[in-house]
């Protein structure tokens, strides 16, 4: 069974998607996206600087567009048995699996990016990668800290990202290092994604999600907050709304997809970070990057 996986924020690079533009399907989708967004995001993707690509209004839509348009150019070879996306990638997965329209998916991603930016500005906050500790130890230490700090991304065994207030993350890094973490590395991010501090963004995104039509996807989707096979439109909506303040359970997602019969993973979008995470869960699992026909 073929599992398609879609990357999240941080996978962007200058020149992304440029080779796709020669495809007529891709070209029309890029131009439609430029209309919806109100500026030529395709120009920034193809020839913009890293600084331009880092802008909140650009990063999330750019990764979404690269992933979704690449999936649309795969033609008849795109026959997913299951899909999943890491954080932002969940929106790409839903569009690729025909649960969301291209336009609705793009508008939701724009709303999400702007809402997250506003939430970041409301309260200074951050994230940190913790390497070499069991999940339970990280969870328990975070619970003991009186500040806001939670396990946010379960990326692979031995790699977990915590998220919260700057003070909360600082205290947690110190305590987790004392508990035996190989590294506690603060990340260069704008805020505490996938934590309770994203509540204002969750409320804004919820309003937008409730207005869109979600259809049953062509195959099961394994969502970040509830990594089990799902095709129910209402449940998909609920999980999408919870995602901004809930944890990205990526380790559990890959483990469950393998348990449910996945025999290869294809990463659709910029970079190959997710393939590396799959290999950390199961070294023998075949992985590859999607390439357009």
Description:
It is a single chain. This protein is α/β, with parallel strands linked by helices. It has 2 domains: 2-121 and 196-289, Malonyl-Coenzyme A Acyl Carrier Protein, domain 2; 125-187, 2-Layer Sandwich (Alpha-Beta Plaits). Helices cover 47% and strands 17% of the residues. The protein is built from 12 helices and 10 strands. Belongs to the fabD family.
As for the CATH topology of the largest domain, it is Malonyl-Coenzyme A Acyl Carrier Protein, domain 2
Largest sheet: 6 strands, mixed
Tally of contiguous helical segments: 12
CATH level-4 homologous superfamily of the largest domain? Malonyl-Coenzyme A Acyl Carrier Protein, domain 2
Strand elements, count: 10
What is the total number of structural domains?
Answer: 2
Q: Tell me the radius of gyration.
A: 18 Å
Instruction: State the share of residues found in helices, binned by percent.
Output: 40-55%
Strand order of the largest sheet: 8-7-2-1-9-10
Q: What low-confidence regions span 5 or more consecutive residues with pLDDT below 50? A: none
Mean pLDDT figure: 96
- Helix and strand element order: EHHHHEHHEHEEHEHEEHHEHE
Describe what is shown at a glance.
With 293 residues, this protein is of the alpha/beta class.
């Amino acid at each position: 069974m073929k599992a398609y996986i879609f990357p999240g924020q941080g996978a962007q690079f200058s020149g992304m998607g440029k080779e796709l533009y020669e495809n007529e399907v891709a070209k029309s989708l890029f131009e439609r996206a430029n209309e919806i967004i109100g500026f030529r995001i395709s120009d920034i993707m193809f020839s913009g600087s890293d600084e331009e690509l880092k802008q909140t209004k650009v990063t999330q839509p750019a990764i979404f567009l690269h992933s979704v348009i690449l999936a649309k150019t795969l033609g008849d070879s795109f026959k997913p048995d299951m899909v999943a996306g890491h954080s932002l990638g969940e929106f790409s997965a839903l569009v690729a699996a025909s649960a969301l329209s291209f336009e609705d998916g793009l508008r939701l991603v724009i709303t999400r990016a702007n809402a997250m930016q506003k939430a970041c500005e409301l309260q200074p906050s951050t994230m940190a990668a913790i390497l070499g500790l069991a999940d339970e130890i990280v969870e328990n230490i975070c619970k003991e800290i009186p500040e806001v700090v939670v396990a946010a991304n379960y990326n692979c065994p031995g790699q977990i990202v915590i998220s919260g207030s700057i003070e909360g993350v600082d205290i947690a890094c110190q305590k987790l290092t004392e508990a035996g973490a190989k590294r506690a590395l603060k990340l260069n991010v704008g805020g505490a994604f996938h934590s309770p501090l994203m509540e204002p963004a969750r409320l804004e995104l919820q309003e937008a999600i409730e207005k869109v039509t979600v259809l049953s996807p062509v195959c099961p989707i394994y969502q970040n907050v509830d990594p089990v096979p799902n095709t129910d439109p209402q449940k998909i909506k609920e999980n999408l709304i919870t995602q901004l303040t809930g944890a990205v359970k990526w380790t559990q997602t890959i483990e469950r997809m393998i348990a449910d019969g996945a025999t290869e993973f294809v990463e659709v979008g910029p970079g190959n970070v997710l393939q590396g995470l799959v290999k950390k869960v199961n070294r023998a699992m075949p992985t590859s990057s999607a390439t357009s026909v």
